[in-house]
Amino acid sequence: MIDVRTQRIGWAILIAALLAAPFAISSGRWMEFIELTLFAALLGQGWNILGGYGGQYSFGHALFFGTAAYIQALLQFKLGWSPWVTLWFAIAGAVAVGAFVGFLSFRYGLRGSYFALVTLAFAEAFHVLARSLVSVTGGGSGIQLSLNQDPEMAIASFQFTFAGPFLAEAGYYYVILFCLLIGFAVTGWLNHSRFGAQLQAVREDEDAAEALGINAFRVKMRAICLSAAVTSLAGIYYVQKFLFVDPGIAYGPGKSVEALFAAIIGGLGTVIGPLLGSAFIHIVGEFAKETIGAMLGDRPGVDLILFGIILVLILAYMPRGLVGLAEVIWKRLSARKEAGDA
Amino acid sequence: MDFLGISLPSYSFDTVFGSAISGVFLGAIYALVALGLTLIYGVLHIINFAHGSLLMLAMYAVFFLWSGLGVDPYLAMLIVVPGGFCFGYLLQRSVIGRASHGRDEIILLATLGVSIALENFALFAFSANERNVQVPYDFDGIDLGFVYVVWPQVAALAGSLLITAALWAFMKFTDTGKAIRAVAKERQGARLMGINVEHIFAVSFGIGTACVAAAASLLAPTYAVFPQVGYLFVLIAFTVVVLGGMGSFVGALVGGLIIGVTEQIGRLYLGESLGLITISAIFILILLFRPTGLFGQRL
């Protein structure tokens, strides 16, 4: 483990750098890149709460992202509610879906792969519903929200495209950063709280945890609700940023996979892991598109081929992810330093 | 007709029966895809998420053999089945076995990684376009009175019965089959009897992949191939396997037929799009209430 003091300094520098980024970086393309990285990190952080800390690997986290996105979009589109009101319903809706899926799966004792499969099946069921209930969801063509062009209403409409020079550039960036900081706070709390300890005990050995008097069912239920709440923030952000949602975006396998990639590659059950993982895959993805894309023509798929291979390699050789790697390197460096001092 | 307060359209017996019959033929295809999956689960206890991607790759192989060399999709079986066996053997031995560390959810993730890599390789190399194998006997068939069945559908039904029987006989009567069953039952004991467990694992994975390759050539005349085609089948195949009982061949066959019929009836009553929800619903209900399936036993 890296010592606490160094960790705190690292966190302070990281958060300061993220807060200052819009002032230091003038390139719109780079800001967009960082924003997407933070978005995937938030998805990963939501997954990490249940998968990393709780050991319950979900293959259907799009459930929570998509439900929040649909509620956020529908209440605005159909009822004309303010996005600042709808977002609470979006979070509550995602948590309700989490509680429902969690109750059924944990009540009937689904563990390991079976839990993964049942979440995948639920996501697929919601996918079919979103496509089929055309009168509610607009079916396959999705929901398009109207773009607010009045700068006065930028804050009220939660849309920053026409919000004056600074907010237009950095408004959405700060929204996603704020959501991610909430995710960091939640996982940080898991590291230090009684509940977090219970959750990790359930992950390590559910039967042993039960024997010690932990109510594993209740702990897992709270974890899936918390995980759904954090993941729902990503759905709200997505709708406000792109003003669009359709069944494939909301409930397709893409978001579920993105979430678990970031968390597993970065490091399961760590606060920083999902951000590291997300940054790593986005950098690799950009790099692959630039180099391989330039050589063989710009075709889709290059980045995801690499992500799949990276996932397998990480599972095979670095089960603790990039965080584990960083700790090993840190240990070697400090050991060398101590040897030099002596 | 009324169901839970929702009024359902009412159909004549002939229409419903016709749907059920076409469901049987559809189910045979699902059973074909599920056979390999259930074998791999029964022996290795791996839920092979890459199964659909392997089907997709085999379908591309069949397609290119047909378009490039003019090989009939059924004859292509002579090439893709051994090819599938080798590919599966190597995949298990060199990739999945190494990444697993013996925990089933890690193996599931590793096979997910493999499937993402394969699917996007296909997207990259072959583009997202749908491709069709066209054979002269595409639309020939027989009229069963309620429903018109084309020969490729009959071939798929016959193929699924034959492959189930062949797998059963192989497991029952050959030495390799006995070794596979021994490993599935008692890994350590099998090792102590001198069975090379890693080899048997890879052989089982290879046979599972060979089955899916056979399924690919039986599917080729009726289904278009595109990079995501595997994803369409993989969830259905899981449903079939779970319904039939993980590791049971007969279960896979019966499960496939049940799912096929349910899907067709569901589509008839709920519409083309919402009808698909019957598959997810069966899957969830079986996982929750009878995870051992219809023919499965706790190992």
Explain what the structure shows.
The complex is a heterodimer of chains A (342) and B (299). Chain A has 342 residues and is mainly alpha-helical. Chain A has a single domain (4-341), classed as Orthogonal Bundle (ABC transporter involved in vitamin B12 uptake, BtuC), CATH 1.10.3470. Chain A is 78% helix and 1% strand. Chain A has 15 helices and two strands. Chain A has helices at 4-24, 28-53, 62-79, 83-107, 112-132, 134-137, 165-192, 194-204, 206-211, 216-242, 247-251, 253-266, 273-296, 302-317, 321-341; strands at 143-144, 244-245. Chain A has a two-stranded antiparallel ribbon with strand order 1-2. Chain A is globular and about 70 Å long. The model of chain A has no long low-confidence stretch (mean pLDDT 90). Chain B is mainly alpha-helical and 299 residues long. Chain B has a single domain, classed as Orthogonal Bundle (ABC transporter involved in vitamin B12 uptake, BtuC). Chain B is 71% helix and 3% strand. Chain B has eleven helices and four strands, in the order ββααααββααααααα. Chain B has helices spanning 13-44, 51-69, 77-100, 104-126, 151-173, 175-185, 187-192, 197-219, 229-244, 249-270, 277-289; strands at residues 2-3, 6-7, 141-143, 148-150. In chain B, strands 1-2 form a two-stranded antiparallel ribbon. Chain B is globular and about 60 Å long. Classes of the chains: A mainly alpha (342), B mainly alpha (299). The interface between A and B is large, with 43 and 47 residues.
Lay out the secondary structure.
The complex is a heterodimer of chains A (342) and B (299).
Chain A (H helix, E strand, L loop, with lengths): L3 H21 L3 H26 L8 H18 L3 H25 L4 H21 L1 H4 L5 E2 L20 H28 L1 H11 L1 H6 L4 H27 L1 E2 L1 H5 L1 H14 L6 H24 L5 H16 L3 H21 L1
Antiparallel strand pairs in A: 1-2
Chain B lengths: L1 E2 L2 E2 L5 H32 L6 H19 L7 H24 L3 H23 L14 E3 L4 E3 H23 L1 H11 L1 H6 L4 H23 L9 H16 L4 H22 L6 H13 L10
Antiparallel strand pairs in B: 1-2, 3-4
Helix pairs in contact in B: 1-5, 1-8, 1-9, 1-10, 2-4, 2-8, 2-9, 3-4, 3-8, 5-6, 5-8, 6-8, 9-10, 9-11, 10-11
